[in-house]
Amino acid sequence: MHYHLELIMPPPVNSENAAISLGGPPRNWVETAVEQVLEPFSEQNPENEHSFYDWYEIGGRWKGTHKINEMSTLNNLSNIVNAARFIVALSDEAGNYSAEFMLEESLWNGVNFVDSAWQGSIKEALTMYDKRTAHYHASYNKAYKPQDNWISVTVDYHS
């Protein structure tokens, strides 16, 4: 089954990360960052207790509607609903990305799925993330809070 994920993340720490090669042809930093963020959740790793996908495609079923957008234009996307997951990712000083915050519409409790408090709206997800980071020191806001130059990437994942 296909599911909709919205991934919010900052641009690379430095311009050298604009094209990265991981043993193959150089790739756009977005593709590399998405891979870094999602890899810990892959069903391909049998030791991963928190897996949720077996493959994914940037854009996927949503190509042409919203694939990659700067946060400054996210107001156009803020009414997007029916996302199954929402992730805010951060980059370390070396330019490696990882998930900082994740929401999902329903959670597996070991027996059945239970609905979460999030209803799949990007606007609602950003509000929940703001509440979670509200106590952060002001000096961390630029690193942890989405800025106008951050991007939103739509990912179609299959589980």
Number of beta-strand segments? 10
* Apparent shape: globular
Largest sheet: 6 strands, mixed
Strand content: 25-35%
Helix content: 10-25%
Please tell me the overall pLDDT: 81
> Rounded to an integer, what's the Rg over CA atoms?
15 Å
Individual helix count:
3
Question: What structural class is derived from the secondary structure elements?
Answer: alpha+beta
**Contiguous runs where pLDDT drops below 50 for at least 5 residues:** 19-25
State the distance separating the first and last CA atoms: 6 Å
- Return the domain count: 1
Series of H and E elements: EEEHEEEEEEHHE
Description:
The chain is α+β, with helices and mostly antiparallel strands and 159 residues long. The chain has one domain (2-137, 149-158). The protein is built from 3 helices and 10 strands; from the N terminus they run βββαββββββααβ. The chain has helices spanning 29-38, 122-133, 141-144; strands spanning 2-9, 19-20, 27-28, 55-58, 68-70, 85-91, 97-104, 106-108, 113-115, 151-158. Strands 1, 4, 5, 6, 7 and 10 form a 6-stranded mixed sheet that branches. A two-stranded antiparallel sheet has the order 2-3. Strand 2 (19-20) and strand 3 (27-28) form a beta hairpin. The longest helix has 12 residues, at 122-133. The relative contact order is 0.29.
